[in-house]
Amino acid sequence: MKLTEIDLHKELKKYFGFNKFKGLQEGVIKSIISGNNTFVIMPTGGGKSLCYQLPALVLEGTAIVVSPLIALMKNQVDAIRSLSSDPGIAHVLNSSLTKTEVTQVKKDITSGLTKLLYVAPESLTKEEYVSFLQGVPISFVAIDEAHCISEWGHDFRPEYRNLRSIIKQLGDVAIIGLTATATPKVQEDILKNLDMVDANTFKASFNRPNLFYEIRTKTKNVESDIIRFIRGYKGKSGVIYCLSRKKVEEIAQVLQVNGISAVPYHAGLDAKTRARHQDMFLMEDVDVVVATIAFGMGIDKPDVRFVIHHDIPKSLESYYQETGRAGRDGGEGHCLAYYSYKDIEKLEKFMSGKPVAEQEIGFALLQEVVAYAETSMSRRKFLLHYFGEEFDDETGEGADMDDNVRNPKKKSEAQDQVATLLKVVKDTNQLYKSKEIIYTLIGKVNAVIKAHKTDAQKMFGKGAAFEEKYWMALIRQVLVDGFLSKDIESYGVLKLTKKGEDFINNPHSFMMSEDHDFTESEEDAIVTAAKSAATTDEVLMGMLRDLRKKVSKKLGVPPFVVFQDPSLEDMALKYPITIDELSNVHGVGEGKAKKYGKDFVELIARYVEDNDIMRPDDLVVKSTGANSALKLYIIQNIDRKLSLNDIAKAKGLDMDALLKEMEQIVYSGTKLNIKYWVDDILDEDQQEEIHDYYMESETDSIKNALKEFDGDYDTEELRLMRIKFISEVAN
């Protein structure tokens, strides 16, 4: 069928129910139907799939779609089948099929029924499939996720490299390459590798104006922060990305324990579970999916309201693609990432076993992520510049939609420093990466600088009045403003642009904003600030101490048996007013809360009401009891009267660590009967002597006990007796 004979709008309405095309779709579809090689760069959510699905449905023959993920193919095939009464209209051809299924697929293609055939790149290399496809009419070949071809792409797959030679064997067919994230370097790579430099290229804007970008420091309280954030999106959908499967499981558990409906998704789960969890998310049976990057390629859920990166991704392409899963319907989308330089160091370590060239690329991509996280300029402008797109951060659509623009850092005049920086790039013959340029400026020597004898030149140390961090921030801003460009071919060498040359000749005002400082000291400062912002209520603390004394007198036990000091301090910080909330207080388990808690929560509830106190919203951030399996193991094996040495050995603990676990168990209200073990170490009189000491003492401090007994008993004996005492007297 010729393009002139096809009413595209009619076909669009017939198959997809839409009245008009979105963005560049119509131009792309016309290009494909006319038999041209076509290259489409369209951000996630821009309607890429329709660009090849509609032409496949209206053209003669079968379109082959190369796709990297089985889950992604399954989704797309289901979607196409829902448009037709015959399931044979779309098929998958990959390693998951049985022989009978493969026969059926071939039959449907030969009869002309199948319009779209989804294949994995590995399947396309199989000789039997290639020779079968040579004998049937092919309308065109679409290569989805085409960035997988480039080693500069964030998801490089070597098998994608062979596609061109295989397609050539299928005859003279048009190729369409599609990607959602491609820097100029990756775009060039794709066109070269697919041998389609003549392709009609369609590039949509990478700007997603409805997305709000935010980076927060990753502190030790990151889980509490995530829970608080999600509670602001009650009943709405979101995705949390983590780099490891273990972390995915942990975060999913923490969310579940805290009443947030969440499921994990990673390659370690069996295919059935993965499919079930994905469906639960799509059907809105759960609100949140916690996932590794295996999740989301082709997940077309329009109303994802937030995407959280618990761990910073390995590249800005990954970050862009993953954040792009938020707000596809044009509604709100909050993209929050937690950043700590420690995570970057961890990622660098993972790369250390790889080939040198791969490491170089990996490091270069990681440095871009660091630059994005630490910059204080408009994040949108920075991101779009990375993808080769200019953005006006004052008038552009979505200009105020990021944390940096909303909370600007102070700016200072840097005209002279920019001139100095650009001259150093020029005078070092444009051979250096950022690091060497900065070393030259501050007067620091390394092997590269020695080799080029830069340290002997007049410019060396010319910028020593400013710190390394200052120059790094300036380089980032000068790059985005187009005075310098980064030569990606040589892993980040800085080159002077025409605009930069002009600046050297005619310098003018340049206002520079300071970068964010994500060093450890800032993290400590944040933790300290959080602590000081939430200080213990001393008045309540006094009242709780008095109550504890009263309760302990009534029961005839020392005060520490009821609740330890750290538990009272936590109560005076969190104001628990139910037994359930009390069991989340430090050192108080369910058993202890039920046994002693009634009077305490009643006192706190009265105090809160009388003094009109706002309780902290993070009160019920519960821990998963990730340690609960270990605790259960200890309790069960002590019940079986197993040797403590054997219990410790089986779990890779030393005696000190085992005693710590046992102390936590008994202090939170669970009994541990260790009489069998203590009887072997201490006779009856010794046990009685230590028991009486704890009964009379105001404190359970081991230090005080050691002093009291003056060397008669060692620390371990006193700790074991304290565990036995608390277990018998308190629980």
TrEMBL record:
Annotated PANTHER family: ATP-DEPENDENT DNA HELICASE Q1, DNA HELICASE RECQ FAMILY MEMBER
Annotated Helicase ATP-binding domain residues: 29-200
Single GO MF descriptor: ATP binding
Annotated ranges, domain HRDC: 534-614
Family per record: Belongs to the helicase family. RecQ subfamily.
Cofactor(s), names only, from the UniProt record: Mg(2+); Zn(2+)
Domain Helicase C-terminal: 225-378
Catalyses which reaction(s): Couples ATP hydrolysis with the unwinding of duplex DNA by translocating in the 3'-5' direction
Name by which UniProt lists this protein: ATP-dependent DNA helicase RecQ
